[in-house]
Amino acid sequence: MSDTLLEIDNLSVDYETERGDLKALRDISFDVKKGEIVGIVGESGCGKSTLISSILRLTAPNTRFRQGEVRFNGDDILAMTERQMRDLRGSDISIVFQDPMQTHNPVLTIGRQLLDIQHRSKATTAQKLETAAKMLAAVGIPDPQARLKQYPHEFSGGMRQRIAIAMALMSEPDLLIADEPTTALDATLEVQIIERLKELQSEMNCAILFISHHLGVIAELCDRVVVMYAGAVVESGDVREIFHDPKHPYTRRLIECDPGHIKTRARILPTIPGEVPDLVNLPDGCIFRDRCEQAFDKCQQVPALDKLKEGHFAACWLNHPEETTA
Amino acid sequence: MSNSRSELSIILRGVAKDPLGLIGLIIVGTIAVSAIFAAWIVPYDPIGMNIPDRMQGPSAAHWLGTDNLGRDTLSRVIMGGQVALKVALPAVFGAMAIGLTLGMIAGYGPKWLDNLLMLFFDTLRSFPTVMFALAVVALVGPSLQTVVLVVMATSIPTYGRVARTQTLTLRNSEFILAERAMGASMARILGVHMLPNIIGVLGVLAAMDVPTVIALEAGLSFLGLGVKPPTPSWGALLKDGYALIRQTPWLVVGGGLPIILATLGFTFLGESLRDVVDPKLRKNR
Fold first, then answer.
1. CA of A107, closest CA in chain B: separation in Å?
2. Which residue of B has its CA nearest to A152?
3. How many A/B residue pairs have CB atoms within 8 Å?
4. Confidence of residue B285 (pLDDT cuts 50, 70, 90)
5. How far apart are alpha carbons B203 and B196 in whole angstroms?
6. pTM: predicted TM-score of the whole model, two decimal places
7. Closest CA to B283 of B60, B18, B73
8. Given a cut of 60, is residue A326 above it in pLDDT?
9. Stretch A10-18: mean pLDDT, rounded?
10. Residue A102 and residue A31: Cα distance in Å, rounded?
11. Is residue A172's pLDDT more than 90?
């Protein structure tokens, strides 16, 4: 129990809209152990962002937590006061956002911002500046002392994302949430950033919750993967298991659609036909049924997320042979 | 502290590079220096009468001539500059400080507070400045403080609205979300992260507002509602000159030219500042 850092237990989150409640997350359960890298994959609109903002409790005003718990080091985040929550953010839990061009204050120097992020520390300004320079060097920014005096617009996108990572890791957090940190960068930079993240992670031994829709990055970086579809977890397990032996049709199709997995030249890239269902008026049965080629009668009932073997869960009736033949 | 000083020198250097900015800087600088040292540089006592030398044209002794009581016009212009700045600076900075605070609270705070503050701003705005000034002066009598107060009250909404709009745009920007995600308190977000983004715009607005206030003070003094005679003011000079234009045209020149120059100077400076204060628009140097 003590090696579990973050536990999400049957979490359901709705957005109140004019059309009715949008069920953004339904019965999400997974956990992140200390020092582990967990990836979350899923297409746009599957609830990844809602999940992150729920963990940080920075949700939109129309968000309603319907059930479940988010426990961090055993404490329920959803029951904390705003004050406790603020102490947690930026010290024990940090986040790196998707777009590095937007995440820095445009009118303050990088040095000033790196100082400000250390507002909890009691060190002197000179010491804080030294820490800042050290952190910049650690994420691979050359000549950090001089760079501290520059403004964000004087850095390239890749550099800015490194600075964002430096800021997030400044407090040596237990959990780093990386919200598609490489989506806005080009492929070479992506590799560099991922390598750097991996190095820093093993140095600091912090857990990372890595959100991405790039399967290659997930496979490269993560220990475990959680596959989300339309606000629900459809499959989760060790990275090898998921990529070599996917047990949910959605995961299978996702892997087929990854350009990195396509060996032969094709005029038309594979896609998953259909659209994500309307989350205000949920269809009955399995959420993926409308887009699934292998759907059968049993799929009119919602499948549970079953444990198939140690460290591999999937929510699909196909994994129950007695149902298929019946 | 050294950081902000270098910031100031960067801004000043940037303004000086722009020809219009340089002109503005020179005019404003001259007015400021002459206003600060007015007591030492005036050639005559600005309120000392000298009836035998009344209503003279420009001469070596009186560069801008004298008025109907024989007072030296140049001395009165210089002293008038001091009065103008004494009204304009406190009024503008006071209005800016209050408007900024209220505007940021309106923009960042809950919706009901925003509505309340906007109602307050709109109420203040709906008074025409001069009518409002007339009413206040009628109630408490003309004085320098009254003018400062009236001008401040009527310009708070302008600053407040700009600060509110800026705050509203910024509060949903990703870097503010990033700050919140990093555990920054509301005070830290407003003070450290939003303020530097807003202050530049408001500073430019203030620089542009100074001539309006100077003109307003002159206007109120012209109507006899501003500073009390015999205190010299540009507006009072204009008023005297208007009455005596057939006898000596130099009073109007003495009162009007400084107002025109101050307006031009502050406007040039304001426009030049606008281009310089934004670090994104600053050229690499």
1. 6
2. B280
3. 70
4. very low
5. 11
6. 0.77
7. B18
8. no
9. 90
10. 30
11. no
State the smallest CA–CA distance between residue B75 and chain A in angstroms.
Answer: 44
DSSP string of chain B, one letter each residue = -HHHHHHHHHHHHHHHHSHHHHHHHHHHHHHHHHHHTHHHH-SS-TT---GGGTT--S-SSSTT-B-TT--BHHHHHHHHHHHHHHHHHHHHHHHHHHHHHHHHHHHHS-HHHHHHHHHHHHHHHHS-HHHHHHHHHHHH---HHHHHHHHHHHHHHHHHHHHHHHHHHHHTSHHHHHHHHTT--HHHIIIIIIHHHHHHHHHHHHHHHHHHHHHHHHHHHHTT-SSPTTS--HHHHHHHHHHTTTT-THHHHHHHHHHHHHHHHHHHHHHHHHHHH-TTTSPP-
The answer to which of A201-210, B2-11, B78-87, B149-158 has the lowest mean pLDDT is B2-11
What mean pLDDT is reported for chain B? 81
Q: What is the pLDDT of residue A323?
A: 67
* Residue ranges of domains in chain B, CATH in brackets: 10-284 (1.10.3720.10)
* Residue A165 pLDDT exceeds 70: yes
- Mutation target vs A (from B10, B169, B182, B278; most A CBs, 10 A cutoff): B182
Assigned token pair, B258? 């400084």
The strands making up A4-17's β-sheet, listed across from edge to edge, are: A20-33, A4-17, A63-72, A75-76
CB contact at 8 A, A198 and A36: no
For residue range B143-182, list pLDDT tens digits in order. 888 888 888 888 899 899 999 999 998 888 888 888 888 8
Per-residue model confidence as pLDDT tens digits over A261-291: 777 777 788 888 888 888 888 888 888 888 8
Residues above pLDDT 70, as percent of chain A: 98
Closest CA to A256 of A239, A267, A270, A274: A270
B19-to-A164, A298, B7, B29, B67 alpha-carbon distances in Å: 40, 80, 21, 15, 37
- Would you call B174 and A97 a contact, using CB atoms and an 8 Å cutoff? yes
For residue A151, the chain B residues in CB contact (below 8 A) are 279-280
What percent of chain B is modeled with pLDDT above 90?
Answer: 11
Two tokens, residue A281: 């008026």
**Better-predicted residue by pLDDT, B241 or A195:** A195
Q: Tell me the C-alpha distance between A321 and B266, whole Å.
A: 83
Residue B187: both structure tokens together: 């005070």
Residues of B in contact with A88 (CB under 8 A): 183
Cα of B91 to nearest chain A Cα, Å = 27
Output DSSP code: residue A89: B
Amino acid, res. A88: L
What are residue A132's phi and psi, to 5 degrees? -60, -45
| Structure confidence at residue B282 as a pLDDT band (50, 70, 90) | low
The vertex-B262 CA angle with B260 and B268, nearest 5°, equals: 100
Any idea how long chain A is? 326
Task: Tell me the mean pLDDT in the region B189-217.
Answer: 85
**Which of A95, A102, A107 comes nearest B181 by C-beta?**
A95
